[in-house]
Amino acid sequence: MKIALGQINTTIGDFQRNTDKIIDYSRRAHASGADLILFPELSVCGYPPRDLVERPSFVAHNLKALDRIQKETAGITVVCGVVTPAKVETGKSVVNSAAVIRDGALELLQSKVLLPTYDVFDESRNFAPATEQKLFQLDGQPVALTICEDAWNDKNFWRKRLYPFDPVEKLVQEGGKLLLNISASPFYVGKQELRREMLAALARRHGVPVAMVNLVGGNDSLIFDGSSIAVDPGGGVIAQGRSFEEDLFCFDTETLTGDVHNQISGEEATALAALVLGTRDYVRKCGFQRVLVGLSGGIDSALTACVAAEALGKENVIGVGMPSPYSSRGSIDDAKALASNLGIQFELIRITDIFDSYLNTLRPVFAGRDEDVTEENIQSRIRGALLMALSNKFGAMVLSTGNKSELAVGYCTLYGDMCGGLAVISDVPKTMVYRLAKYVNSQRNVIPLATIEKAPSAELRPNQTDQDTLPPYEVLDKILEGYIEANDCAEQIAAENDYDLPLVKNVIRMVDRAEYKRQQAAVGLKISEKAFGVGRRLPIAAKSDV
User: Is the CATH code 3.40.190.10 the one for domain 270-470+514-524?
Assistant: First the structure.
């Protein structure tokens, strides 16, 4: 049998376009001689639909689209993800299903058993679990069909399983000779390798070929890398789809050969590709064509502008320099040079007069008080207001430029530098920002060397540097990794890294105090195992335990 994998980029709720893609890819696969084509999880409606599935009209449109797919995909068996009624007396009203369509008829609805509720997932909020699963026949061969999480519970692969039941084990015990999985598996740095190892382990354990088709594209904070794959019973890769691109490719279940397309590999390369894809899809799927980036001459805004230009085209990016009395000549020149190197539009709006007006207005109220962070934040908020004014006037989305390290400890200004529709690098630690900037320059020298080499500074007061307030970023990022991603306590972080305990505790206090800021921040693109956003749900009004 020749099986095709249709790795497509869907938009949530865009039934017309999603269905058009499914039909087009099915016809192309049929023309190439494929007997069956797999599409990703919930490919009909887009993933993750979240509470939209509670709307009867949404489910109805989804089923109408499925009916159209049945009518327009003759000659090939199609497996696609769809929301279907649960048909249960209690619990949720819908299930997450894989529809098997053959010769214009719906042959099987296989629904998802394991509904993840960790990190960014909250599927039990929306779906009922399947009560049964069945094999289906393809050219006389029994096939085990599963949906994403159903394949992520192998007791021999995971040190601790999340569920007592393994759908794959059950289906193979019942006679399944081929395992097919339709997925919407979000990206983070290192996820591609983990996914490949997990699927190979499944194939070796059960002695069957395994194929997984994964979603590609960005939906809100989540980025899906594609990287769909088929492996032989020994775990060897026999077919693989491209990373971060739509793709159609095939493999043969008898010869165990197939198409192997190029993959992006390496932490910097995959992280940058993910940010580009996530930015492009978020901006476009939200209905925008152009973006604005405040260019300070610093490395964060430089990297953000590079991502934006790659994602949307240089003609759709506007860089805005907004120097204050404390901005250095070098920073202004670096911002101009970056814009010139990228070929993007650049506007310079000096804020000194506006800042002076603020100070004059507030002087009577502030009488007798020294200047402090208040005046620094005023500068940031002037810039935020100007960017939002330009956004309104030109219909361009503002991209905020803060990194994960700053956002973690609250080294950012609400309604100032946090303004924007998308926080492009909010899941990129400062040390990785430097790595990505150097990687960008290794491909094409666009970021001025001075931007990379100079001490990081917000330039909101004379001779200011970030390290006036924060530990060195190499130290800070290690503490943040331990606290945010590993959930380690202060004592453990200090001991493992030979850091002073008071320093670690102070950083943790900063992280906890900044929760109210993060929950008002723009949507950020997730590229780590634990990003700020829907996958990290903490109370704001809570006492720190350090």
Answer: no
